[in-house]
Structures are given as C-alpha cells and as structure tokens.
Design brief:
The protein has 124 residues and is α/β, with parallel strands linked by helices. It has a single domain, classed as Rossmann fold, CATH 3.40.50.2300. 40% of the residues lie in helices and 19% in strands. It is built from five helices and five strands. It has a five-stranded parallel β-sheet, with helices on both faces. The longest helix is centred in the first third of the chain and has 13 residues. It is globular, with a radius of gyration of 13 Å. This is Response regulator. It holds the Pfam family Response_reg. Keywords: Phosphoprotein. InterPro entries: Bact_response_regulator, CheY-like_superfamily, Sig_transdc_resp-reg_receiver.
C-alpha cells in the first residue's frame, strides 16, 4: 500500500492522463495534487513546499517551463525529494542531467500500476 503521509505533486498537461494517474495513485493510498503545467506546479510547490514529498512530471509540457526545468527548480528547493520524469521521447532519456540529479525515468506509454510501483519503491 501507499502512505497517506506521501503527497505526490503530479504534473501532466493531458487532463485524462492526469486524472487516470491521480486516481491510480490515490487508490494505492497516496495523497495526490495535480497540476497541468510547470508554472502551476511551481506555484503549488512554493505555497506549501513541506507538503509535497514526491514529484512526478511529464517532460514535454506547454509554456515556458518543461518538466526538466520544473524538476531542477524543485530539487534546488528540496534536494531530497524523489523525482520521476515521464516522457515518450527517447532523446529525453539520453540527457545527462537525469543521472547527475538522480531522477527516476518512466517511458510513455506506461500502465498506471508501473507508476504506482515506482512511487512505492522511491518512497521506501
């Protein structure tokens, strides 16, 4: 089971994907707050930085802040927070920052249970 003391900030610009993943994580026992952009997620994080214990973000999002930039900014503010970068683009997985900053990666398409298992692993 997940833990209610874990609050995942889930950032995904596709509404249906965000809803499915949020529901799957909640069903597994996690608390989830969704955001549709990097800017919205950063605003939510800045309001309550101690509230969030994990970040899951899509890499490609509209606006001025993609998932990589969001993850880097949140890691600057909360160095110990586990981060999962999700992308369907293979080139994202070859970028050097992912190993330097110890981000977990999840390749799209993925099944909800894969995200749940990864969240469980990272929080243990």
């Amino acid at each position: 089971m997940g833990r209610r003391d874990v609050c995942i900030l889930l950032v995904e610009d596709e509404d249906l994907i965000r809803e499915i993943m949020s529901e799957s994580l909640r069903d597994a026992g996690f608390d989830v707050v969704g955001a549709s952009s990097g800017h919205e997620a950063m605003h939510l994080f800045d309001e309550r930085p101690q509230h969030f214990t994990m970040l899951v973000t899509d890499f490609n999002m509209p606006g001025q802040m993609d998932g990589g930039a969001l993850a880097e900014r949140i890691r600057e503010k909360a160095p110990a927070i586990p981060v999962v970068i999700v992308s369907g683009r293979p080139d994202v997985f070859r970028q050097s920052w992912r190993t330097e900053l110890n981000f977990a990666l999840l390749q799209k398409p993925y099944r909800p249970h894969e995200l749940v298992e990864l969240a469980r692993t990272l929080m243990n």
